Amino acid sequence: MPKNLKISYLLDFYGDMLTGTQREAVDAYYNQDLSLSEIAGDRDISRQGARDAIKRAEQQLLEMEDRLGLAKRFQEMQKALAAICDCALDIQELNAQSGGVAGIDEDAGRILTLAQEIADRE
Fold first, then answer.
1. 26 three-class SS
2. Cβ proximity of 7 and 30 under 8 Å
3. Cα 40 from Cα 93, distance rounded (Å)
């Protein structure tokens, strides 16, 4: 994942743990694509102050992910849920090709429903 996307992604997970100034500066820089000068002007700070706030926040976000791993765990769970759904769809297809046993099709459908419910909660 490119660094710009990674920082933006980590901001979603850990943004509340930053100071308000850091969170706003990182959001403006990465999500709103504002320049350091624009961020500094909006917050009545120097350009260097805006840069420092962003760099400190980046470091904190990366450290939090290294320690807690919430974003990585979330991505792994999303991949696992997608794999579960793919397997359930394959089971339904194979079941249909071999004459179709109602219980198998119902169970595969239930697996798909449960996986989607979990994905929606995340």
1. helix
2. yes
3. 57
